[in-house]
Amino acid sequence: MNALFLFLYLLFATPTTEKHTLTINISNIEKIKGTVEIGVFNTHERFLEEGQAYKSISVKVTANTQTVVVKDLPPGIYAVSMYHDVNSDGDLNRNFFGIPKEPYGFSNNFKPRFSAPKFQDCEFKLASDFEIDIELRG
Fold first, then answer.
1. CB 81 within 8 A of CB 52
2. Dihedral angle of Cα 113, 82, 108, 29, to the nearest 10 degrees
3. What is the pLDDT of residues 10-38, one digit of tens each?
4. pLDDT at 39
5. Residue 135: left (phi > 0), alpha (psi -120 to 50), or beta?
6. Secondary structure (H, E, C), the chain
7. How far apart are CA 78 and CA 138, in angstroms?
8. Residue 8 backbone dihedrals phi, psi, to 5 degrees
9. How far apart are CA 110 and CA 39, in angstroms?
10. Angle at 97 between CA 92 and CA 100, to 5 degrees
């Protein structure tokens, strides 16, 4: 009898290992050189801070549109940021006022006005395999 209870407990108490795939379609890539640097964030804390993304991906630019597949993401709320590192220097180059000089984009195609976006501006729910489109601007 104890073995039956143990079996049922393990059967129903086992944590889910459900993982999903996020497909990101990037458009409006004007220059076919450099890399696109992508950050996939899963929390509003430290959103957009360097080195704080849940997953970071670097993709060599080979066309005006590109598709990036991010695998093994647990269900949750995410936000994506990216920039086109045209000169391959590893930085998002900015002007004197801090405005990006290289193309950038965010999930929900959020367009910042006077400051960087908040996580809530770019968030989306990942509950199954999901596809988003991001158009680079700037």
1. no
2. 90
3. 556 555 589 999 999 999 999 999 999 99
4. 98
5. beta
6. CHHHHHHHHHHHHCCCCCCEEEEEEEECCCCCCCEEEEEEECCCCCCCCCCCCCEEEEEECCCCCEEEEEEEECCEEEEEEEEEECCCCCCCCECCCCCECCCEEEHHHCCCCCCCCCHHHHCEEECCCEEEEEECEC
7. 23
8. -65, -40
9. 15
10. 25
Q: Does domain 17-135 have CATH number 4.10.410?
A: no
The domains of the chain are located at 17-135
Tokens matching residue 44:
């509003």
- Measure the CA–CA gap between 47 and 54, rounded to whole angstroms: 10
For residue range 59-114, list pLDDT tens digits in order: 999 999 999 999 999 999 999 999 999 999 999 999 998 889 999 999 999 999 88
